[in-house]
Amino acid sequence: MAHPSPIFILAPPRSFTSVVCGVLGQHPSIFGVPELNLFRAETVAEYLSGPPGSPFRGIMRHDGTLRTVAQLYAGEQTLDSVDLAYRWLRVRSHRSTASVFRELCEKVNPLILLDKSPGYVRRRLYIERIWETFPDAKFIHLLRHPRGVCESIMKADIGPITALFMGAVDDEGKTPVLDPQEGWLEAHVNIMGFLGKVPPHQWMRVKGEDFLQNIETKASEICRWLNIDDSAESIEAMKYPERSPFACIGPGTARLGGDPNFLEAPQLRPYRAKEPSLEGALNWRPDGHGFNADVRALARSFGYS
Questions:
Q1: Please, what is the Cα angle at 154 between 152 and 157, to 5 degrees?
Q2: Using CA atoms, how far apart are residues 109 and 243, in angstroms rounded to an integer?
Q3: Which terminal residue of the chain, N or C, has fewer Cβ atoms less than 10 Å from its own Cβ?
Q4: What span, in angstroms and rounded, lies between the C-alpha atoms of 295 and 141?
Q5: Domains, the chain
């Protein structure tokens, strides 16, 4: 029997992907996994070494895939099972990442595999690989206000370094300024360009702030769109993302696979944050500049003010 087509959350880093995946992944019909990043490479060998020309070549983290394979094939996430998972990947080094992703989908069948790797939206090529492999896949375009995304990136322990690797540098002035707003813009332009070719019934746009403020309603809407059960029991199960085997820091050789803050405290908490403004100075810029016109225009088209 064919396995159900997977679901992909498309969003730049720090866009609530970990918590939204954690919530949806607790639905009885869904198997939410950490960030797999498999489609950022064409072959498993390339995946293990890093894409050619990428600033992350050789340091791309494989924690999400190692933890997923360890859990699925060994039933646990330990140093030994992660070592097994690495060997599992190595013996498949000659294969395409698409075939390995299909194998994981078959392993969780009849559950639907849910992947939320923010790295996919760095390049259209990565998302196109998903589409070529799974033409029936469903896509959730997850939004977060650009100010919230950028502030979250710059506050993270390695956020500025990550932003630098992503090329988030404004060099139009006399002095270059580290500014992640261009990364937010590029990611959503890539997503929207891709979704323009996807049939409307296969993708859904979700504002992360709305989801976190009213999880019951928004989760039910997503369930109906996916044509899976939205009973009170299923919605209740989704309120406990901490019950996922991946909702914690992993063993020393595969610790992450998602936002460290979420992994350290995965329980849902009330979200009452006031929506920030698109106007005014950006606190991570020393020159007092605000969002550029393209960022403001796209954010407004998403319903932000």
A1: 95
A2: 20
A3: N
A4: 17
A5: 7-144+199-273 (3.40.50.300)
Number of continuous H segments (helices) and E segments (strands) in the chain: 14, 7
Answer whether 118's CB lies under 8 Å from 11's CB.
Answer: yes
Mean pLDDT on 35-57: 80
Q: Residue 271 — pLDDT band, cuts 50, 70, 90?
A: confident
Query: Could you tell me the pTM of the whole model?
Result: 0.92
Could you read off the pLDDT of 47-58 as tens digits, one per residue? 998 755 555 544
How many CA atoms within 13 Å lie on the side-chain side of 216?
5
The beta-carbon contacts of 74-83 under 8 Å, at least 24 apart in sequence, are 77/245, 77/246, 77/250, 77/251, 77/254, 78/251, 79/251, 79/252, 79/253, 82/250, 82/251, 82/253, 82/254, 83/253
> Which residue has tokens 């950490």?
34
pLDDT score of 16 more than 80: yes
pLDDT at 37: 94
**pLDDT, tens only, 84-103:** 999 999 999 999 999 999 99
Q: Distance of CA 149 to CAs 117, 141, 299, Å?
A: 16, 15, 12
